[in-house]
Please model this.
Amino acid sequence: MIIEEASESDLQEILDLQKLAFRIQGEIYNDFTIPPLVQTLEEIKNDFLLQVFLKTEKNGKIIGSVRGFKVDDSCYIGRLIVHPDHQNQGIGSKLLSEIEKVFTTVSRFELFTGHKSEKEIYFYQKQGYNIFKKEKVDEILTMVYFEKKREQ
Model:
């Protein structure tokens, strides 16, 4: 599996995959207005200017992506997505590992998910991420924040 940096010409395909992958989260929370589902092409283009986007393909189609950016001594990882037909094959693990390798100068990584996203919570913990904060957004959603310290 080859994981490489995405280009601007990949953004529409990544956005389409993002909306497909996050539909499951919309169903879990009965909320289809979550940011990954309503993001526009213009917004993802703006993100692309400030973040590193990685992708992986199969048969010429993007089946996974992740993005990250650095602030001070931390890398913030977001929108880790894998096509539903290709989940549970190690793609998410490889994407997460690769985005960590991109940010060689940080000492910690941070990401988040919703409290009902049990599959994602289990996955992040399995990848060495630990919960360090929970933040209630509203009556329906509590965000769960994870961090992972870089091994010295």
Q: What stands out?
A: The chain has one domain: 3-149. Residues 18 and 81 are 6 Å apart (CA to CA).
